[in-house]
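User: Predict structure, ligand zinc ion.
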Amino acid sequence: MTNNLFADIILPLAVRGRFTYRIPDNIEAEIRPGVIVKVQFGGRKLYSGIVCRVHDDQPDFKNVKPVIKVISGTPLINESQLKLWQWISDYYLCSEGEVMKAAMPNEMSLTNFKPRLESFIKLSRRFTEGELNEILDKLKKAPRQQEILLAYIRLTGYSKETEILSVAKSLVLSESHSSAGTLDALIDKGLLATISLPVSRISENDSFGKPIKPLSEAQSEAFKSIKSQFAEKDIVLLHGVTSSGKTEIYIHLIEEQLKLGKQVLYMLPEIALTTQIILRLKRHFGPVTGVYHSRFSDPEKVEIWKRVAENDPLNGYRLILGVRSSLFLPFSDLGLIIVDEEHDGSYKQHDPAPRYHARDSAIILAAIHKAKTILGSASPSVESYNNAVNGKYGLAELKERFGLIKLPSIVLANTREAYRKKLMVSHFTPELLQAMDEALAKEEQIILFQNRRGFSPYIECSECGWIPACIQCAVNLTYHKGIGKLVCHYCGYMTDMPSKCGNCHSTGMVTRGFGTEKIEDEIKIVFPAARITRMDQDTTRNKNSFNKLIRAFEERRIDILIGTQMISKGLDFENLTVVGILNADNLLNYPDFRAHERSFQLMEQVSGRAGRRQKQGKVVIQTSDPANKIIRLVLRHDYVNMFKMQSEERKTFNYPPFCRLVKISIKHKDRVQLNYYSDILGRELREIFGKRVLGPESPVISQVQLWYIKTILIKIEKEKPPARAKQLIIEAIDRLEKEKGASTLKIAIDVDPY
Ligand code: ADP
Ligand code: ZN
Ligand code: ZN
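Assistant: Predicted complex:
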């Protein structure tokens, strides 16, 4: 034994716990928390892991393996990040390795980061003005070459005093309308030279430095209220109706933090939203503003990561706008976290682990940095509003729209009656069509919202009722007309649209229900002169598709935009006056205790897109059940009564926020085996938790990708800390996993499922 130092290391594995390795003498000096090292785990496999603690506590097992080598000597992960990872793994019952995998760009690209190189042009040596004029003169016979040299001089402002400046080759070529061949000729003549220089992968060509807008009276009050509440509370909920100017308030709060030299994280639930807000932020805060989301390539992510880590006043990002994973960037000194649209379900990661809620984790991250958190929404989650009502969070309110524009008026259109009276034009009620007609006549814009993509959610044989289903999942296939295929929205399985019934061979296959694609088709027939576009998962697969669609709508090159929940939140369009919700029923009739809350939020959000600038907007909600209590509340924009109603219901039936939920999903490819094992776990858990256990039961989608699924739900009292209960759940699962044959199961734990 030469050395008594050990390192606890996080490995990218689903196994809970940290792993202890011996530190060999020769690399001892380099090993610190946050450093990446190579170690062996299990048989022969080598892994890169992150050192999180160095100590001299001899582990209680023999053959402690050595750290093989140090991959990155400078720590890539800071202490605050390690604390957040640890909290997430404890709270959401996953391994720190799983958090690590979600939290970091590919470790190789992080350690082997190479800046992007681009070709630049410069003069081969210093020329006097006389020499240059002579050269230009000689080049008269080669006007294209002369043009390039002139372009170079123009772009660099060449003068004999300054150093020899370089300018991007692409810029010289476009400026002089020349080809690379012509440029090569000048290089061959020894006049110009090329060099490679590192450039940013992130484009930033926006102007900035615009002064921030003064707040209205109502906004100033909310702003002051937030600040005074921050004196006592770490978290304030900003409940402001749609278009009340919450974003402007955030901008004022950000400005203060940046002036203090602090970092700010601004979170949004959806990539589509980052497009507009980033422009609004960059206008004021310029290049310290960075955006982060999953559409970036690994090298781009690494560059953003580094610029956050550097936190230097010149090149660093101090304001990050991002989706949930931006939580994991290497912040060193956060002053404020903004969680906008805090109620949004996309903040919760479903699969794979870590199944974390980014809003709740953000609150922890803020606490780690001793920073403040602001949660913003026009229709807060029942959980957050409850915390505000209880005084756990502060509450600030904005009850009016900016400019005192009225909230949109809402019209209910009864589809059942319209069908009966034969007044429907395909899927559109007379009320909706009239509102659209009027808007189009005034050259105003329209959004149509339908929460299903594809052409029709299923197709059916008109003779025998046969419906094609996925071969791997217990769901019907959705018809996508554009590609002429039936698609499974759960596993991606695709097959050709059948010409005949698979059961009775009749040729009478008909489409049922409607998705965004069908709406697009039909609305084109109803309004042939209108410019119509669709925005959903299928039309936004390319990296820049959001930007293009949003810009086109802003520039009024689109009259009618049809979309899924992607278009429902946050977007701010000047000329949009009419919103149509095509089928409110399928939002409301979903078997989940949050379905009513969610449909209220969705309808309130999408309505909120209408009439944000000059005049009141109009919303038409199509429903077969206009008496529905949630719809009645949306009609009056009555959030508080929605909250009270939901709160009562959840208290009565014991659901969050009055208890905590832990959901266990058990999967097996064999239905009988699944029933057998899930029953064992159900019995075990019932012995511990009694009536708090619900299930095992089959979820709505009972099979995905050939795996049958059962779920068990456990309700844990809110009064006690959940750690003990969680420990018991883990132990029960560990026991099940040791049963004979149980290794063929897949078990997932979801804490606070959404
Ligand atoms: P919210 O975030 O509450 O939906 P926004 O911040 O997007 O609202 O504000 C709605 C619109 O009103 C935006 O176009 C915004 O630029 C404008 N606006 C809000 N506050 C102000 C202000 N104080 N001065 C000028 N324009 C404002
Ligand atoms: Zn048939
Ligand atoms: Zn499938």
